[in-house]
Amino acid sequence: QVRLVESGGGSVQAGGSLRLSCVGSGVTYSSTSTMAWFRQAPGKEREGVAATTGGSFGYYADSVKGRFTISRDNAKKNTVYLQMNSLKPEDTAMYYCAAVNMGGAWSRGNFRDWGQGTQVTVSS
What we know:
mainly beta, globular, single chain, about 120 residues, seven-stranded mixed beta sheet
C-alpha cells in the first residue's frame, strides 16, 4: 500500500521558517518521478506550491519564489522536503505532498499519490 506522510508543520510568526518533510512507503519512486507540494487554505482552491523531478531544479508558484525551496533526498528517493523561509500569514494552509504526475503541468495536480497533509499556520 502506497503511503505518503508529511511532517514538519506547525505555527510560526511572520518572517519565520519551517521545513516540511514527506516520506513515501510501499513504493519506490524513480529519480525522475515528479514530487510536489500543494496547499489549500480554508475556502480556497488547492494551489501548487513547488515541484521537482530530481536534481537541483525546482518549479515554484510565483507567490513562493525566492522564499521556498523544494529538494529531494538523493539517497532516499522517496523523500522530498520543502524549506519555507520568510513565511507570511497568507502562507497559512494545509500542505500536501504528491508524487507521480499522471499528465499535464504539475500545477494542475494530476498526481497518483497524495499524503494526508500537515498544517502550517503563520501569525502576523
